[in-house]
Amino acid sequence: MANIIKRVGRLSLIKSRPEDADELAPYLRLNDKRECLIMGLEPLEALREPLAIDGAFTYTIRFDENPIAMCGTVPVTGDTARVWMLGTGGINNNFRPFLRGCKEVIRILQGNYDMIENFVPVDHTETIMWLSWCGFTFDDDLFEINGHTMMRFVRCINQKNNVYYLQQRPVMH
Predict the structure, then answer these.
(1) Strands 57-63, 11-15: parallel, antiparallel or unpaired by DSSP?
(2) pTM score
(3) I need a surface site. Which of 68, 85, 120, 158 has the fewest CB within 10 A?
């Protein structure tokens, strides 16, 4: 398969094509469809929209040759991006291989951004547990988006492990 960015076992991450959105949209999990609708988008719109945004990165996750999710980042500022993922039941059916590859995919999505963020409905407990496992933290403040209670999740580059972090630099005389 061409355009493979990363392979972990039977999972592969590839650059998305519009056909991937067409293939995935009818099979999104109920919570993923709900998140699309909360944001005022049909699933196909939500999957295709990032493909047309300048500076956005959009990937398809495949299990063997079958697409099970699309994910990506949309730039907000120079150092911050909105991160997203919409998936099918293929994630749940192959959760162990999916979990093995998640952290590497999140690292790729983080890219050069200092911070990646988005919102999740407070009642999507499985998603919240998965995001926490992937290294995201959650704000205490809740938000209303189109009548739904949401919480913001964030993942930042660990500055303290960065050799360029100012407090760790030796003093130059």
Answers:
(1) antiparallel
(2) 0.87
(3) 158
d(CA 48, CA 70): 10
8 Å CB contact between 131 and 122: no
Nearest of 146, 124, 128 to residue 136 by alpha carbon: 128
Residue type, position 163, single letter: V
The angle formed by the CA atoms of residues 57, 63 and 69, to the nearest 5 degrees, is 40
> What is the rounded (10 degree) CA torsion for 106, 112, 118, 123?
20
- pLDDT single digits (tens) 95-154: 899 998 898 999 999 999 999 999 999 999 999 999 999 999 999 999 999 999 999 999
pLDDT in tens, 23-55: 999 999 999 999 999 999 999 999 999 999 999
